[in-house]
Structure formats: structure tokens, C-alpha cells
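Record 1 of the preview.
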Amino acid sequence: MIYTAAGDSEGTLGGLVRLGRPERLGPVVNRALGRAFWCSADPVCSENLGGQGSKMANLAACHGCILLPETSCETINHGLDRAMVVGEPEARQHGFFVNFIGQP
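->
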């Protein structure tokens, strides 16, 4: 899921405003969280909680799952952690949104 913090006179990234409507945003968030349970680089991605990326600030976040091109992210992907959102594979109950969507 991409969130834009800076728009201009032309709007923001082609219709993201329309996706913010409740009837559209709920299903989008639910699908995004469901996909966050798995990364093609797992178990390495979710086990690398010692830090990676810029200033070792990213935990479970790699180019296989959630990193965006630097031009798309104003904070240059700093501080991302997929495990914080959906939990670690062996401890899903620690994920922030696990109760929202349940187990995969």
C-alpha cells in the first residue's frame, strides 16, 4: 500500500483519493495485510531483526516484499518492519494488525 504525503495541483498519484473511501480502503488494507504475512525472501527477511538498510533501521523489510523505489518514499524506506505489522512467523500474536485480519 502506498501513501502519499505530498500532493500538487494535479492531485496525488493518480486517484489515490478515491481509494480512501471506506468502501474501497477496507478491502485494500485487508489484502495488503494478508500479503504481508509472506515474503519471497522468508525466512531470511523476517529473521533479520538485527537491522538492515540505511542506518540498520529496517528490520523485516527487503526488496522482495515492501521496499519502494526511493523516489516513491519521502523517508527513503527508513524504519520499515513487516514483522511489527503482522508478527514474526513463530510469534504472529505480536503483530499489530493480527487481530484485524486473523491468521493466514
